[in-house]
Amino acid sequence: MLADKITKDNIETMVMNFYRRVLKDDLVGPYFIEELGDDMDNKYWQPHLKRLVDFWESVVQGDTSYKRNPFTPHMMMEDLNLEVFERWLKLFFETVDEVYEPQIADRFKERSNTIAGNFMRNLGLV
Ligand code: HEM
Fold this sequence. Notes:
Globin-like, single chain
């Protein structure tokens, strides 16, 4: 059943489903495998997943547990390009559509699109 409200539990589900999808993707997957490995249970993935749950809670719920700069790790990745961002967004949109009712999925899509746009501008890709 699609969720009609945002909770920490369904953000956790969404984040896990997103990265399962990412790891299977030939274009976006390798960036994560290089940083964190290919096993989401390992000691590198665990803090990343927790961080991303905090991040999305802060973006969509105004929660304050995420206090880092989300752009920093992307600055270090030299070969990010538009195609990778577009794929990332496609995978993210597919994931939120699987978890949330359209009205809520749209909120995540709108925010991710804006943030991805900022990242791309900061990286000089657009
Ligand atoms: C081109 C697409 C992208 C790729 C390949 C990518 C890849 C990565 C990688 C490899 C990390 C580092 C993992 C770690 O050490 O924790 C990371 C961190 C992160 N990414 Fe992305 N990312 C992309 C786009 C985005 C977008 C569009 C967003 C937000 C809408 C986002 C949000 C974040 C956040 C919040 C972190 C954790 C930052 C921190 O607190 O250290 N990423 N990303």
